[in-house]
Specification:
Chain C: It is found in: Cell membrane. The complex is a heterotrimer of chains A (352), B (240) and C (588). With 352 residues, chain A is an all-alpha fold. Helix content of chain A is 73%, strand content 2%. In chain A, α3 runs antiparallel to α5 and α13 crosses α14. Chain C is an alpha/beta fold. Chain C is elongated, with a radius of gyration of 28 Å. The chains are: A mainly alpha (352), B alpha/beta (240), C alpha/beta (588). At the A-C interface, α8, α13, α15 and α16 of A face α5, α10 and α12 of C.
Chain lengths: 352, 240, 588
């Protein structure tokens, strides 16, 4: 391998790593606030890419049906809960939030689907369709068992991935799509290295979003309330922060991150209805490097995963998945050693 | 006038065990009432139930409203605030952020938040010095100050204090309880739960002695202070 | 249901299964074969996930390792399938040990996440090895032969598969009712109790992980020689989730649940494959959605699975009390009055906080020492130093003349230190007698194999008799076969004392044993502790109930802010002004 090739591979890897970075931040956010390992994150990203691809082909995207189905299920669950409680307190508000609000992006998407509108309209609408997915999945699958152990939540998250990936195939079909590049242009750097505008866009967006993410959590009251919930749930309740609401906020932010990841990755690889799983899992490797708590270490870990993947595919494209997932073993080993040294206090992991 | 806080025949259980059995007490506005008793008497359980962190049966009313119908967060919004035994601070966040979050229930009133913050810093100058420091780097006494300060940020009408002296050296306990006493002058009513009986009774107007989940004695704080039966609940041996 | 009916039920089930091929169509027999293979994997998962609380999303990968191993050995290597079996179990076992050694130290959610990762890695490996036929797989695998009869026909393979299922289910059920099986059942409540009775939680996890992988390996071997062709697809993550579903649907904590679950899931899958194509062209997707939704609904509404929902209405099997069996041999206690424990200037810091500050005291055989002090005085930390749950920052602790300051908890337990916990640590789903038998773990020695093969019966009988004797001693004999979780809190504390006694200790360390007890119960406990003192046990009690303590102990040590402020007889301690001030908060 020449240094040139190594450089190209590194740049490529960093671009993919940028996607894992956004996904990793979303995963850590949801885990720290709700204790859910949100496996369907990657699915939302993949569906957003497929939505944009459908718009570009002037077709109606399957996401509309998917979001509508989820909104209907969530509304039915709210009604059921109200009947069981024998009280309609707040029901109207919940039905509006879970049943009606998600239909707004659906309507917009319906309107523009068959028309020749500029990308600048299509992208926000595709993102708009991504937004309600996280909160709806939360309401349907996780809210009823909010007090369950992390393990039970994880089993549900994985099952949920398979359920919505199945729905994805129904709504999108088995074909894969690649969206057209968001930006054109090729840049030649001194030394003969060629970088596409798309790669620059991916990396720049990730950096920008990561900075925004950081500012949001450091500066805004909502961001602080999210952190507070993650750090100490009881403490958060005692100052009047409602964990359910912070949960919804976390899912909204994660959905937005997932949507943006999907838009960014769409032009660089062919996305299928089930591509999200592997995207999500690779982001997990990054998140696990960060111990599912640290945002900066997760970001570094995600970039590392991207570069490793890029180098691995140079040597054997078939084996790249094996390499990336085998990477977990030394990471876990390191984590478990760290655990063995710091694991002084008593801990009980009861679950029922 | 009816009491600000009214608890009657309250039962709280974990599974099949009742940790609080038929406790009744009341607190009038502007008073400091203390609940003392040895470890394991059910004091923390009692406060947990009042705050809504634990399920309970019995009468639980605050300013005429049935607390059973309100969630923890609703109670906070009504000015019913708990400083828990375990402090429950946001350890990885700064002292300043902890305080700002204390006013989360009043977040729409920027002027209130600012004056409340000034008020807390006046009362606890130490916290002002350390406002940019992470909460988990504070000493035990400072943590207790921060926990009280955070609760004050919500503009409480009734403050429930769970063992503010726990793990603190006697001098710091004095300081903290002196500050607690001054809170009453600003219109905050206080329910003080303590194991440190003498310090609590010196601060309070009225006292209840809790023993194995039941109220064993109650009376004016100054009377209880010299009552040998109080000592008996702690070290045993005295006759009924 | 009565205990005697149990073997009858098993015989009946075995008879039905044996007669089944005669009554069923060839297709139904093939279906039964798939159910059997699924059931074997699911039995392993019940042991691992349902009982041990360790979730695996990668079990299909172990099935695959075994299937590919035997396929490769019998095609490329040309050996007999009967040699393929040990080879397949060896490779699967090695893979499990390797993966387990790395991942099983991880807590909670890291473990299942890592199972996804290695599950996928192994799947991709299959598809990329030339020697394993890449994505096309390996074909021409020979059938298993018994003598000159080759088991080619699905009716012939049926016997082999269901014999394996029967043997596997029996082994699993036996294991759960043995010394090591109780350790597995205790895993779920966390490591603290386990270490205090001398069980190594990591080792227990590793072995049960290995056993579950070997069940999957056996299933993989059967699968390879039944279908006589292997390719990567059946070993990816979706089938792994189906296996998990089988274990969870049936009832994750019951061996029978694995069989029921495997049957239900396989039949449902088959039914969906029959029905869906008539309704939609996307049958496979609806199948996937249906399975995932069922799994979510189970997690929401029936986390225990179907079997427990049904058995709830049946009376529990109760065993008879042992009669005429000798209890386990006992150790010789030190002479009364001999010093057994010496704590010398023990210090324990947590960051800047000194929780135990240069505390010294001694304890003699045949003596009860009380450790008292207000909340936060460092009593629990002192306890944890004595039992090895925490290590002292400095100072020295000696027990029976041996330095135990840096000794791991299990070795201290083996020397004869037994304890109870302030926050009761029992296994609520186990019976009283089983909980007590956990305490005798170090006095017994039966291993995994002898437990599964029922070679441990004489030792088990003695351990049971011993546990009954301890229960009788604390007054709980009449409830020996009840579940510990159904006891009121006071009696749970007493049960912990019985468990501590089952270790045949030299010293017992009791953390607030009287809390939550009624007056009569307290009196009975005090009488029991006095008896134990007379027998020569050394007893250390942390207690807040002063009436209880003052009337019972020989000496008291008072701790405040981590330091020992007084030591002496109860009457003197009560008059001590420092102690009074410490309790009631005196002048500074």
């Amino acid at each position: 391998m020449t240094p040139d090739i190594a450089l190209i591979l590194t740049v490529d890897g960093l671009a993919n790593g940028a996607i894992y970075l956004l996904a990793g931040l979303g995963l850590v956010l949801i885990f720290s606030v709700t204790r859910v390992v949100f496996v369907p994150f990657g699915d939302i990203a993949a569906f957003t890419a497929l939505t944009l691809a459908a718009f570009q082909m002037q077709r109606v995207p399957g996401t509309i049906g998917l979001v509508a189905v989820l909104a209907a299920v969530a509304s039915l669950m709210e009604l059921g809960a109200a009947v069981r409680r024998r009280s309609a307190d707040g029901l109207a508000q919940r039905l509006f939030g879970y049943g009606l609000l998600p239909l707004i992006p659906c309507g917009l998407a319906w309107l523009i689907a068959a028309r020749d509108v500029p990308e600048i309209v299509r992208i926000p609408v595709a993102l708009g369709l991504a937004l309600p997915m996280g909160p709806l999945l939360d309401r349907i699958a996780f809210r009823p068992i909010a007090d369950a152990s992390v393990l039970v939540l994880l089993i549900v998250a994985i099952a949920l991935h398979f359920a919505i990936a199945g729905l994805g195939l129904l709504f999108f079909g088995p074909e894969g799509f690649r969206t057209t590049a968001l930006v054109d242009g090729i840049f030649e750097l001194p030394g003969g290295l060629v970088i596409t505008g798309q790669l620059i866009l991916m990396m720049a967006s990730a950096v920008l979003l990561a900075v925004l993410f950081f500012l949001f959590f450091e500066r805004s009251l909502i961001g602080k309330a999210l952190r507070a919930t993650a750090v100490n749930r009881t403490g958060a309740r005692l100052v009047g922060i409602r964990p359910e609401r912070t949960g919804v906020t976390a899912y909204l932010i994660a959905s937005a991150l997932a949507g943006i990841s999907g838009i960014l990755i769409g032009p660089s690889t062919t996305i299928y209805y089930d591509s999200g799983f592997l995207i999500g899992l690779k982001a997990f490797v990054g998140a696990i490097i960060g111990g599912l708590v640290s945002y900066p270490v997760t970001a570094l870990g995600a970039l590392f995963v991207g570069v490793m993947e890029s180098f691995a595919s140079f040597f054997s494209s078939a084996m790249k998945e094996v390499v990336v997932f085998s990477l977990l073993i030394p990471v876990l080993l390191w984590r478990s050693l760290a655990l063995a040294h710091g694991g002084d206090e008593e801990h009980e992991e009861l679950d029922g | 006038m009816s009491a600000m806080l009214e608890i009657a025949d309250l039962h709280v259980g974990y599974g099949k065990v009742e940790a609080v059995r038929g406790v009744s007490l009341s607190l009038d506005k502007g008073r400091i009432v203390t609940v003392i008793g040895p470890n394991g008497a059910g004091k923390t359980t009692l406060l947990g139930a009042a705050m809504g962190l634990l399920a309970s049966r019995g009468v639980l009313r605050f300013e005429g409203a049935d607390l059973h119908e309100l969630g923890v967060e609703d109670r906070v919004e009504r000015g019913f605030c708990l400083v828990p035994e375990r402090r429950e601070l946001f350890g990885e966040m700064t002292v300043g952020d902890n305080l700002i979050l204390g006013a989360y229930s009043r977040r729409k009133d920027a002027a209130f938040v600012k004056s409340a913050l000034d008020g807390v810093f006046d009362r606890f100058p130490r916290l002002a010095e350390r406002r940019r420091q992470r909460a988990d780097t504070l000493s035990g006494g400072e943590r207790q100050m921060l926990a009280i300060g955070r609760a004050l940020m919500a503009g409480p009408r009734l403050l429930l204090l769970d063992e503010p002296s726990l793990g603190l050296a006697p001098l710091i306990v004095r300081d903290i309880l002196r500050i607690v006493a001054t809170l009453r002058d600003t219109g905050v009513s206080i329910l003080l739960v303590e194991q440190n009986a003498r310090a609590a009774l010196e601060t309070a107007d009225y006292g209840y002695v809790l023993e194995t989940g039941e109220i064993a004695l109650h009376g004016a704080a100054s009377d209880l202070l010299n009552d040998p039966r109080v000592m008996a609940t702690y070290l045993g041996g005295a006759t009924e | 249901m009565n205990a005697a009916l149990r073997p009858l039920g098993i015989l009946l089930a075995a008879g039905l299964l044996a007669a089944a091929p005669a009554a069923l169509s060839t297709f139904a027999v093939t279906l039964m074969n798939y159910i059997g293979i699924g059931a074997l994997v699911a039995v392993g998962l019940v042991l691992l996930t349902g009982i041990g609380g360790l979730t695996s999303f990668g079990q299909a990968a172990f099935v695959g390792v075994a299937a590919y191993s035997t396929a490769w050995a019998t095609t490329a290597g040309g050996v007999s399938p009967w040699l393929g079996l040990p080879f397949a179990l060896l490779t699967t076992g090695l893979a499990a040990l390797l993966i387990g050694a790395v991942t099983l130290r991880l807590g909670g959610h890291f473990l299942p996440l890592s199972t996804i990762a290695w599950g996928i890695s192994i799947f991709y490996l299959f598809g990329n090895f030339e020697a394993l036929g890449s994505h096309t797989g390996l074909s021409g695998i020979p059938p298993v032969s018994i003598g000159s009869i080759a088991l080619i026909d699905s009716r012939a393979v049926y016997w082999l598969i269901w014999a394996a299922v029967g043997a596997g289910a029996l082994f699993g059920a036996n294991l759960l009712d043995s010394r090591q099986g109780r350790a597995v059942r205790a895993l779920r409540g966390g490591p603290v109790l386990m270490a205090s009775v001398g069980i190594d939680p990591f080792r227990t996890r590793l072995v049960i992980f290995l056993i579950a992988a070997l069940y999957a390996g056996l299933a993989g071997w059967l699968y390879a020689h039944m279908s006589r062709f292997v390719s990567p697809a059946p070993f990816e993550i979706k089938p792994s989730i189906e296996y998990l579903l089988m274990a969870l649907v049936g009832g994750a904590s019951h061996i029978v649940g694995a069989l029921v679950g495997a049957g239900l899931v396989t039949l449902l899958k088959n039914w969906l494959q029959d029905v869906l194509p008539h309704v939609t062209s996307n049958a496979a997707q609806y199948e996937q959605i249906a399975f995932a939704v069922i799994l979510i609904v189970i997690m929401h509404h029936a986390r225990g699975g179907l079997v427990p929902m049904l058995t709830r209405f049946l009376p529990r099997v109760r065993r008879a009390a042992p009669v005429g069996t000798d209890p386990l041999p006992r150790r010789t206690l030190p002479e009364r009055g001999e010093t057994v424990l010496v704590v010398d200037q023990a210090v324990r810091r947590f960051g800047g906080l000194v929780a135990v500050d240069k505390v010294s005291f001694e304890l003699k055989a045949g003596e009860i020492l009380g450790l008292i002090g207000p909340n936060g005085a460092g009593k629990s930390t002192m306890f944890n130093l004595l039992t090895g749950a925490l290590r002292a920052s400095s100072g020295r602790i000696a027990f029976l003349g041996q330095d135990i300051t840096r000794m791991p908890q299990r070795r201290i337990a083996a020397l004869g230190v037994a304890r109870t916990f302030q926050h009761v640590k029992l296994r609520p789903a186990m019976t009283l007698v089983e909980n007590v038998m956990l305490g005798a773990h170090l006095r017994t020695g039966a291993g995994w194999l002898s437990g599964g093969l029922r070679l441990d019966r004489s030792e088990e009988a003695r351990a049971r008799a011993d546990a009954y004797a301890q229960l009788a001693r604390v007054g709980l004999a009449d409830k020996a076969e009840d579940l510990a979780g159904n006891l009121p809190l006071g009696q749970q504390r007493i049960l912990e004392v019985a468990r501590a006694l089952a270790a045949d200790p030299v010293m017992i360390v009791l953390d607030e044993p009287a809390a939550g007890l009624r007056r009569k119960e307290k009196e009975a406990l005090a009488a029991l502790l006095s008896d134990l003192r007379r027998e020569g046990l050394a007893i250390l009690v942390v207690e807040h109930d002063m009436d209880f303590v003052m009337g019972l102990v020989d000496r008291l040590v008072v701790m405040v802010f981590g330091a020992r402020i007084a030591e002496g007889e109860p009457a003197a301690i009560r008059r001590n002004p420092d102690v009074q001030a410490a309790y009631l908060g005196g002048v500074a």
